[in-house]
Amino acid sequence: MPAGCSDGSCIIWDFETRGIAKELKDKDCAVAITSVSWSKYGHCILVAAVDKSLTLWDVVKGERMARNVLQQTPLRACLHPGLSTPSICLACPLSSAPMIVDLLTETTIVLPVSLSDVGNGATPPSGNKIPDESAPFSPAIACFSKYGDLVYVGNSKGEILIIDSVSIKIRGMLSIPGSALIKNIAFSRSGQYLLTNSNDRIIRIYENLLPLKGGHEVLDRANQESTEQDEVQKLKHAGTGALALFWEFQDSITKVHWKAPYFSGDEEWVAGGSASKGEHKIYIWDMDRRLAKILEGPKETLLDLAWHPVKPIIASVSLTGFVYLWAKDCTENWSAFAPDFRELEENEEYVEREDEFDLMPETEKVKELDVYEDRDIDIVTVEEGDSALSDSDMSQEEIQ
């Protein structure tokens, strides 16, 4: 599990040994880390920092593979999930539009964050240049699809833009109910569900109706077959065929804002942290919208959380810099395997039998001898026996 530190280093913990497996430290970076992201096969890791840098590391060798400096501080950065060789990443800066960055060629392509940025929704305004910082900017967040052929952008108007990651063209658009600002957007591990966290205190789950591969081709056909004359209406029509609202959740009592919601690895659960100041609470729901558990930590503001891709473990980061691991408290029940197992309330001294650890115990022999040991012996009743086995020369009738 990687974690970025305030001094610019990245620590990787080993879950098996519970120790530090690797420490990545760039001599050119001495500021806080804002984001870490694994590559597809886990051989590389991308680190974003406050000094506006993106650094790609070879984890095994501990060597820096590439380093790019942007014009804005990247709050989030993730590598392209469909490439075996990590070279392209998606960065979401603090005060500019999300962008696709080629770490090897150091080229940057800014993504459109609204339909007005592209006029007719066909092409981006500029290829490799960052927009003027003096121009007004609406906050946006973005994520790759399962295989990275599409980018989903959530903007301040409550719109989800579906963009081709190669041509940077908008292929579809969907408005969330209420049109509130979208703060988080993320896909589940399988790519079947999309999660959004909005400023209206509602977490929404959308079902992905597009194929995992070749989704841009399906959207192109939908645009061509649409009977709508207006380009915006065509994009909306394509968007409704790409995403379907599955369910939404809000706490109508506390009206709490959510932070860093995410899916579990098996997609059976959704976790979201409370954004309240001085509160470290994690809410867990099942996919039927039932609140299953509330995890309460120390009175420290929650910054981020992540779910283990395989195990039922959640890692949360607090404002004080601590990383907390949450796991199920398992109670061992040995009587389920050994019915004669007896649980002890406290330690007791065990006294072993004399032949307990003998190779040929004498217990079985003793048991054979002691079968009739406690049986009462009748010495009064005379039993009829066979005369052939008697010591007397007289028969039983003669004796009587």
Write a short abstract of this structure.
With 400 residues, the protein is mainly beta.
Descriptive terms for the model:
single chain, 400 residues, mainly beta, Methylamine Dehydrogenase, Chain H, four-stranded antiparallel β-sheet, 26 strands
Notes on the protein architecture:
There is one protein chain. The chain has four helices and 26 strands. It has 400 residues and is mainly beta. The chain has a domain at 1-110: YVTN repeat-like/Quinoprotein amine dehydrogenase (Methylamine Dehydrogenase, Chain H), CATH 2.130.10. Strands 4-5-6-7 form a four-stranded antiparallel β-sheet, with no helix packed on it. A hairpin with a 5-residue loop joins β12 and β13 (150-155). It is elongated, with a radius of gyration of 35 Å. Residues 120-127, 129-136 and 387-393 have low confidence and may be disordered. Its main location: nucleus.
Provide the fold topology.
Elements: E1 2-4, E2 9-14, E3 19-25, E4 33-38, E5 44-49, E6 53-58, E7 63-69, E8 74-79, E9 88-93, E10 99-102, E11 107-110, E12 140-144, E13 150-155, E14 159-164, E15 170-175, E16 182-187, E17 193-198, E18 203-208, H1 215-225, H2 231-240, E19 243-249, E20 258-263, E21 269-274, E22 281-286, E23 291-296, E24 302-307, E25 313-318, E26 323-327, H3 363-369, H4 396-399
Antiparallel strand pairs: 1-2, 2-3, 4-5, 5-6, 6-7, 8-9, 9-10, 10-11, 12-13, 13-14, 14-15, 16-17, 17-18, 18-19, 20-21, 21-22, 22-23, 24-25, 25-26
Helix pairs in contact: 1-2
